[in-house]
Model the fold of this input.
Amino acid sequence: MFSSNHYIEDVNDIPPRWIFENYLDLNVPLNGNRVRIKSLFNPADKTPSMFIYYNRDCNCYKFKCFSTGKGGGAVDLMMHIWNVDFKQTCDKIIKDYSDYLKDGKSPEKQTFDLVTWVPGSFEHRKWTTADAKYWSQFNIGSDLLEEHGVYPLKSYKMFKYNSDDTIVDSFEICGNHIYGFYDTKGNLCKIYQPYKKERKFIKITDYLQGSDQLKANKYLVIASSLKDIMTIKSLGFRVDVVAPHSENTLISSEIMKTYKKLYKAVVSVLDSDQAGINAMKEYEEAYGVPFCYLPLEKDISDIVKHHGKDVALRELSPKLDRAIEKYLQKN
Done:
């Protein structure tokens, strides 16, 4: 006879840890630890960017995929994976968990047949006065653009692949303000479309922006974007500047250890929105890196754009000095 102890009515009665452990092939049990895996939503994810972590506020496990921005609880994850609504997801989890309680058999771990769009087939074009107008508002000129491998694109194609790398569809994107960010080897790392609300950035490869342009200055600044890197340099600060491909992705501990040995001080100057503030606090907590908070605009580039170079200097210079002094006192 089926025991009432095996009957579950509410998905909230099921431990999130059980959901993560029994549907995903984590290889390790969740005992308050944090597990890092390759993104389940981004097949191009070479450096694992998805975390299953214990959240003390809710006393349960959650997930965060820094490659795609997806995050939430265990049920949210399975909704994304199964591509079904909340009720269908809950019904399946409840049934599987009830069966597990009854006979001890875990559900079969899933393999995911993901279909993804990948950019390719890029066509370049010449610089125009419209390009100059866009970049000059951030005090960024042609020398900085060339130094950091920023070039205009006439168009690019997006190809749709299934799990066996077969192309199943494609389309072409054209526009007046499309830019490619290249590394020093000539590899396209990111596409930047400043006037698009969706897919403003298209990441192609993992690349720490600015890392190829380091000049052995005394201090290192962690910024939010390549645009901010170039703006900070344009203001005349004698610092090296790097930026991960997203504020949601921290620079790895291995790279940070190297930077802290190479530089007299390391500080961050990220966006003044909540995501940027959270990232700056995380850098400080994880690596002892102080930050500069610039609430006048969202970022240093917008301060230059809306208030001019002199105001940007007055905003950043004293805060940068204080952050460097704070770092020196602690290290």
Notes: The two ends are 66 Å apart (CA to CA). Confidence is low (pLDDT under 50) at residues 1-5.
